[in-house]
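The pair is quoted verbatim below.
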Amino acid sequence: MKGLGFFYKGKERRQGKRHAVQWDALLDVRFPDFHEQIPVKVVNLSAGGALLHSKQLTVDNRHLIITETKPELTLKISPPERTLELTARIEWYEVLDGRSTFEIGVSFVDYKNEANISVDELIKTMGTST
């Protein structure tokens, strides 16, 4: 399975600092006729997106990327005393070499309006050091 995936080969587009984290989260996947949640691990986070690790990239035999109808995706992170829900779009993914884990790069569609909290504030709230 080495080499499966699609990649962004251009200039680095993240404008904010990346914060290394290890947070459990859920990726809420909504197709017009189907809804499911995928457990994911948030590996790093910036104001514009995140790097996720997941054991699956399909739900109900539907691929999250290779499909006519793209699903609506919401990343749900639950720090103490709040739940952060961010609309996301998959930008790239890769199968990690020698594992059955997908590395998934997501961008947040409207982070500032949805989150109403800076990444630095979120990091402090979660009690995670960078």
Confidence is low (pLDDT under 50) at residues 1-11. Residues 16-126 form a domain with the Thrombin, subunit H fold (CATH 2.40.10.220).
